[in-house]
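Hi R.,

As promised, here are both runs. First protein below:
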Amino acid sequence: MDRISSGNGALDSILGGGFPVNSINIVMGLPGTGKTILAEKVVFCNASPERPALYIGTVSEPVDKMLRYLQEFDYFDAEMIGDAIIYEDMSEVLRSNDLEAFVNAVVALVKEHSPSFLVIDSFKALHAFSTSAGEFRRLLAELMTTLSTLAITSFLVGEYGPDEFSSMPEFAVADGVIELVLKKVGVKDVRYLRVVKERGSSFLSGEHAFKITTSGLDVFPRLVTPTSAVSYEILNERQKTGVEVFDEMVAEGFWRGASTVIFGPPGSGKTLLGLHLIFKGIEMGEKGLIAMMQENPTQLHRIAGGFGWDVQKAIDDGMLELFYVSPVDIYIDEFISRVSGMALTSGAKRVMIDSLDDLAASSPDPDRFRDFTYSLVQTLATHGISTCMTSEVKSLFSTNVETESGISHMSDNVVLVHYMRQNSEIKRAISIIKTRASYHDPRIRQFEITPDGIRIGGSFSDSDFA
């Protein structure tokens, strides 16, 4: 079927290509969720003098006030008002007459302007002007018949709650329903949208995070595991880490496209080990992507520079992509969406995520964190991109890895960097806990941080454990 764009490519992909032409859509959500912004973006991105849009305000917000705030958005074009987009305030019709007068007025306006698009905001407010449920159903049927007959793509905006979907008649006649919600996650407010219904069309189900920006809604589709099996022939190739002894510990390197999680207590060298894998890869001609929440770009430049790695040169040479977001303002949906997109478009062969703990803290629930992380790992794996992730453990000296999210189960390789007491000294150690479909050295090896990077030595002797 023919479709119109929502004005946002990510939302179009969720909708299976956009809103079906000549469909009747309900945009529902409590106040402040962004319903009007979505409706306005649709008409400004699609309307023209040849295919005008009719925007009808009821009693929820005066049209002049709506237009005043609308000017703050990038997509606003004053020259479209009155020609491509016709605004009509119907509040006086409702207050002075009744619902039937409103419906008759809307039908008259539709026949006068012959719009290709129609928005009624707020549609739910019309219930207050109906004398009975029977009357509302009769007038609703009359209005919907007119819209369908004249081939208009319509958007009925309303402050509907989730419990009203099954009780109000407009949901039965609507072809599509989009719900916008606002949730509190920690100290942050996070917005989600989901397609509840889209008649005769496939769509991406589930909750998709979005932000309200000057461009409208910035949507981050929920990343899902590839729906069909893909060739894994590329996984028959080993990928050197660049650390000779480390490569020997994992049978000459990890499988290409494998996921590795590095566990360790604070200061044990998790981030450094991840950076080592990225920059050694760059030296071997493999592009890298670093997605960080722990250190900002300035701190990363200083840390990497201390070991002879020039972050800016790698970026300028097109060998490194850098994505940083503060753990205070992180949205797991946005993070996963941007990282996967950057990795696939940049041609990266190695991706580092530092750290999983910040990502988990940004998720509204453990299931969402697990699902998103698994989907990211699988998406990158199918493109032969190796993933390295860091995660903190509580104990400084324990060699046990305990995770509540199941991240160790979904990872191909598990590495543990930790501390050991040796006489009156504390030394770093490294262990390979798991390598999927590969041999690995199970011994606890010495792990040193030097000005040239990391150095892995021999195994500890029995006396070292005394």
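And here is the second one, sequence first, then its structure tokens:
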Amino acid sequence: MRLDRHGAWAFFVSVLLVLAPACSRGPSDVRYLSIATGGTGGVYYPYGGGLAKILNESLPGLRATAEVTSASVDNLKLIRDGRADLAFTLADTLAEAAAGRGPFAGRPVPVTSLAVLYTNYTHVVALGSSSIRTIADLRGQVVSTGSPGSGTEIIATRILRAAGLDPEGDVTRQGLGVSESAGALKDGKIAAFFWSGGLPSAAVQDLAHTTGITIRMIPTGDLVPRLQQEHGALYFAATVPAAAYPGIDAAVPVVGVANVLVANASMPEPLAYDITRLLFEKQPELAGIHPEARNLSPERAAGSTPAPFHPGAIRFYREKGVWKP
């Protein structure tokens, strides 16, 4: 059986989860931990799978599982409803959840931060053969703005508005996840798609490696000042380096947003401490599963987030001398 890069990656993480010692059935007092991640074509799922593996191997009596989800919005609703213990989320979605705005209107999420992990880069991907070179060129086009319940959907809507486009009237929206978006672009069913993810994102990488396909990333960095004007410092300038994907031969300025590992506020302090500690003690293992884990550092992890830090995480960062209340 031959697997493409996307399939190999998802299969590899699945094998890790199956082989993890904690996946065997245990006694009735075992604590089960659900980690809400994202789709298999992004970074959250392999990162979350790696985290589940190290927790299972390092914390006796714990059974952690990485769950495939629609990502940020969905993840925080799972935290709110007590159906997930840990979650990956974008900082802008986290701000809405903590304040009870937008998709969380009237129901603030009892969420706390454990670590700021890495930067998400806003991918707006079109075919190299298309005439689309700016966000304004998306007017009148069929565009995937991310799956419903994703942080990508929030960012896509805000970027379109910042560029002077009506997300409902000026484009024909498709709500597809990144893997489905890549397939639809390849098949000519959409003109472009939005994706907010780390580097590299498996689905975009697979698309860029497809024979006969050349991708183009549309710059969004010029929209950062407008986004900051409306939403504050949640958004910042980031750069996708040349050669990040095949066909990207020059650096692309884009909108960046932080990724945060969060926990339900009810999580016991010792467990939150241990999870935070293991992120760093087992960092080489995590980086072996996805390279974005190389960007983890105590100073960065203890940085600014829209949700308060869990007391267990604060204890760890104080021990490392990086906590700045």
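A quick note on the second one: Confidence is low (pLDDT under 50) at residues 1-6, 8-13, 17-26. Let me know what you think.

Best,
J.
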